[in-house]
Amino acid sequence: MPIISRRGKDAYTSPIRHLGPYADAAKAKGKHVYHLNIGNPDINTPTLALEAVRNAAEKIVPYSPSKGFTSYRKKLVGYYKKFGADLSYEDIIITNGASEGILFSMFSCLDAGDEVIIPEPFYAIYNAFCYVSGVKIVTITSSIENGYALPSAKEFEACITPRTKAIFICNPNNPTGCVYTKEELAALGEIVKKNDLFFFVDEVYREFSYEDKFYSVLNFKDLEDHVVVIDSVSKRFSACGARVGALVSKNPNILENVNKYAEFRLSPPHFGQVLAEATLDVDESYINEVKLEYVKRRDYIYSRLAKMDDVICKKPNGAFYILAKIPIDDSVKFCKWLLTDFEYKKSTVMLAPASGFYATPGKGKQEVRLAYVLGVETIEKAMDCLEVALKEYPGRTPTEKVVTNGVLKH
Amino acid sequence: MPIISRRGKDAYTSPIRHLGPYADAAKAKGKHVYHLNIGNPDINTPTLALEAVRNAAEKIVPYSPSKGFTSYRKKLVGYYKKFGADLSYEDIIITNGASEGILFSMFSCLDAGDEVIIPEPFYAIYNAFCYVSGVKIVTITSSIENGYALPSAKEFEACITPRTKAIFICNPNNPTGCVYTKEELAALGEIVKKNDLFFFVDEVYREFSYEDKFYSVLNFKDLEDHVVVIDSVSKRFSACGARVGALVSKNPNILENVNKYAEFRLSPPHFGQVLAEATLDVDESYINEVKLEYVKRRDYIYSRLAKMDDVICKKPNGAFYILAKIPIDDSVKFCKWLLTDFEYKKSTVMLAPASGFYATPGKGKQEVRLAYVLGVETIEKAMDCLEVALKEYPGRTPTEKVVTNGVLKH
Fold first, then answer.
1. Is the pLDDT of residue A57 over 90?
2. A 314-373 residues with CB below 8 A of B?
3. What is residue B276's three-state secondary structure?
């Protein structure tokens, strides 16, 4: 038998995905599983956008241009303008979801062996794209005790080595739900400029900032050569399966490289682009209603978690995730146990173990991520499960108590 | 300004794509351009498949499973059975077009520095995927003089080094139009087994074999551990923009690795899969009519080329391409000249310079690829242009005459 590649054998696999078969087995036994483990929202995709696909009159489904439909790219200029960004359509390249945007950023800007600084916890799949491109992740730990605030500029600076080529953040943040301020971003921008780094910002949750106005790094005129924004319609229009994202940059060298990679894979998907282009005609009321719905869910899930014994969490102000520190020995073990050994009223809840969001070994063992992508009534039942589970779990271990500045419940 | 990556800067770019701006400029001047340069067919996508997308009743467009819709994978088992392959749906992973299938094959089976043997001329974008994955292409030249027949097993064997990990062929072949026989494939299979290699076969043109019955490598029971078939709905259902392909293998180690890469990018496109699944219900008469149409076009384009002075070509029996050796100094120069300096009846023709299909420097300078993806009446006008152009072209250089076994016109 021929020997498969070492890189394939050693490739990153998500600890969250490992739980999938256990969830399937639980369902096969008739157990209902509340999926708070993945950001696949239950919100309806805008009817107008679905209609655009249903009304598509084409008789042939041809390749689109590698950079995406020109009409869509032109229309996106207006969308970003609403966030203060002054773009030309040539600054925008359509990608197969944000996933491809991240991969293209890595390949276009960084060489194997280069380092990228990412504050942890971070979206686990960044590991995969850095692995594929041979880029080394250097991490700074933010912690639940201060609400996962962005580490200080000083802490970023301390991580810089001759191989550092980029800083990479997600704003609003998955998995922490933090929304970064203009000032915090500007402070990072100074480091980026001073050290001639790239500044990758994953803004796929850009519409989901609940208390503060979201500030896009595309507004920093002095960072135009450095900034690469990764975006997607997946979350904001509940269209994860459309596979349509965008990579935005004002740096022509980056765009030239990204375009090469875009040409390799010929084109982004046709119908996804038809849908995505139509989302730009969707009335603002859609997103406002969706935001209100998420606020309701967030407030509810937070209030339930806050009442549970020995659970530490802060109310997040963006995206649709909440991280909670819970009294368990090991989040991977606990999340598996929920599926294999626990049930309450013939149901259980599926969560994401937070250890997958940390690069530092051992971190996140008492943390889980909950995606509030289901309605309040469903979350209620899921929280009932969790509450009972935490009492029954044999590996219960008190959470470390930490002195804090008042944002935490103990 | 931050310095972009060396790998991005040095990345492969297709010599065919370079011509795009010249075509745009020609059109802007009011010149009509006949596109015989790219395999983007003018054949209608089956109505039944388009209807499936139009009738899609979903209110949300969620991620599909990373491996693709299970229902689609199960249905594909029946499709491949028609070609003699005995598969389980678990042997099939849905990809973003064949492009992603090739990339996943490289990453999953080969390490950087490994060698893959590919007979040339070959589909230019293989270069790109080998570049991205750091895989070295070792090539054996097949030539127009014997109709680009598959080089002998002996020639393949002579290329094997300790780093050789795979043989990669396209059957039916793009750009040559050759269809390989069971015996030729079996001979390669022996080498594959003897040397414990992977056997990558791009079968995206599997439906387009005109004189002989197409034989899939999936039929070789003794090669199950070695074979990876790359497939796509793009060409056979004229749905290049659907971005739906498949990677097929019976080797569990390969599938396990491919699945990791599939998980990184979350899922293939939703609507593309809706369309692709529906194509499996399309009546056989669709593909039979399409084949008849291509045969008509092939016979016509061949008859025209064969009549042109000093043009060498063989009638291909598969795919929808024909390579011709024409009396010019340099195919890149000539194809550019057609767009920038030539016109006949306010029109010109766009072709693909064959040098892009060779890895050996200097090869293909007198060859061009013509994609017969347009109707006979349009091809007629395009051939009128080419006939006049070859007379007017200032770099006219006689084609080398070669003694042959009678398949050539001189």
1. no
2. none
3. helix
A43 in contact with B at a CB cutoff of 8 Å? yes
pLDDT at residue A403 is higher than 50: no
- Would you tell me the crossing angle of helices B70-81 and B270-279 to the nearest 10 degrees? 30
pLDDT, tens only, B343-355: 999 999 999 999 9
Which residues are within 8 A (CB) of A389 and not within 5 positions of it... i.e. 6 or more apart? A338, A342, A344, A348, A349
Contact A272 B275 (CB under 8 A): no
Report yes or no: A36 and A372 within 8 Å, Cβ to Cβ.
yes
Look at residue B91 and tell me whether its pLDDT is greater than 90.
Answer: yes
Please give the helix or strand (H or E) that residue A15 lies within, else none: none
For A199, nearest residue in chain B (alpha carbons): B2
Ramachandran quadrant class, B110 (left: phi over 0; alpha: psi -120 to 50; beta: rest): beta
CA closest to A52 among chain B residues: B54
The per-residue pLDDT for A410 is: 36
Token couple for B184: 């030729």
Interface of B with A in 230-269 (CB under 8 A): 238-243, 251, 253-254, 257-258, 260-261, 263-269
Residues of chain B above pLDDT 90, percent: 89
Name the residue with tokens 């944002």: A407
Contact check, Cβ <8 Å, A269/B241 = yes
DSSP calls for B286-304: HHHHHHHHHHHHHHHHHHH
CB contact under 8 A, A267 and B243: yes
Q: Report the side by side order of strands in the sheet with A321-325.
A: A321-325, A367-371, A352-353
C-alpha distances (whole Å) from B241 to each of A107, A189, A292, B41, B169 are 24, 39, 36, 11, 24
A111 contacts A141 by C-beta, under 8 angstroms: no
Q: How far is CA A339 from CA A26, A209, A245, A333, in A?
A: 6, 32, 33, 10
pLDDT at A12 over 90: no
Topology of the domain comprising B47-279: Aspartate Aminotransferase; domain 2 (3.40.640)
* Local confidence band at A147 (pLDDT 50, 70, 90 cut-offs): confident
Triad B12, B17, B18: Cα angle to 5°: 90
Residue A147's closest CA among A177, A122, A116? A177
B315-340 burial code (b ≥16 CB/10 A, e <16): bbbbbbbbbbbbbbebbbebbbbbbb
Q: Select the residue of B59, B63, B97 nearest A266 (Cβ to Cβ).
A: B97
Size of interface A-B (CB pairs under 8 A): 246
CB contact under 8 A, A241 and B269: yes
Domain ranges in chain A are 6-44+285-392, 47-279
**DSSP-based three-state secondary structure for A34:** strand
Please, which pLDDT band fits residue B287 given cuts at 50, 70 and 90? Answer: very high
- At residue B404, the pLDDT reads 45
pLDDT at B402: 56
Q: Which CATH architecture has domain A6-44+285-392?
A: Alpha-Beta Complex (3.90)
Q: Measuring CA to CA, how many Å separate B50 from each of A53, A119, B134, B239?
A: 10, 45, 39, 10
B4-43 pLDDT tens trace: 899 998 888 877 778 988 999 999 999 999 999 988 889 9
**CB-based contact A128:A357 (threshold 8 Å):** no
**Residue B88 — φ and ψ, nearest 5°?**
-105, 155
Q: Which of B218, B286, B248 is nearest to B73 (CA)?
A: B248
CB contact under 8 A, B241 and A267: yes
Helices and strands (DSSP H and E) totals, chain A: 13, 12
ipTM of the complex: 0.94
Residue A343 distance to chain B (closest CA, Å)? 26
pTM score of the predicted model: 0.94
Provide the pLDDT for residue B406: 38
Amino acid at A358: Y
